[in-house]
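A quick word before the example. In earlier lectures we treated sequence and structure as two separate objects. From today on, think of them as two lines of the same record. Here is DNA polymerase III subunit chi written that way.
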Amino acid sequence: MTRIDFAFGANDRLRAACQVARKRYLAGQRLVVYCANGSRLSAFDRLLWAFDDISFVPHVLASDPLAASTPVILTASPPAPPSSDNDEGPWLMNLDDDCPPGYEAFPRVLEIVSGEPDDRQAARQRWRTYQAAGHDLHGHDLAGRLA
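And the structure line, produced from the sequence above:
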């Protein structure tokens, strides 16, 4: 069963997501980032290039020819887990307001939630959806730890 981790209280949802992507990359792990909202996904893509002056997180869109060999994949389409060299498989980070389609194929889903009322409300609905499906849910308080 898929483990779902909610990280609540991010000062900036996309910046916190960049930090998660960097952590996964530095650990040698693959990550698929889903968001059906094209402008939000584009903003995340741009931020990955600029959020930190001294680090780089290799990433491409899922449609890119280099997607199979790139550690971080961005997609606005229903995410398909890419093949993985490790036993666990890639994690899925959801930046959309709804649960990602096909998330059950991933061993773990990461949800980053800001303190914005609309973001928190959408996260509550996703939590209920995952809970109703019987998934293992974990909440983490990011307030003061990630910017």
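Notice the following. Helices lie at 13-26, 38-50, 117-132. We will return to this example when we discuss secondary structure assignment.
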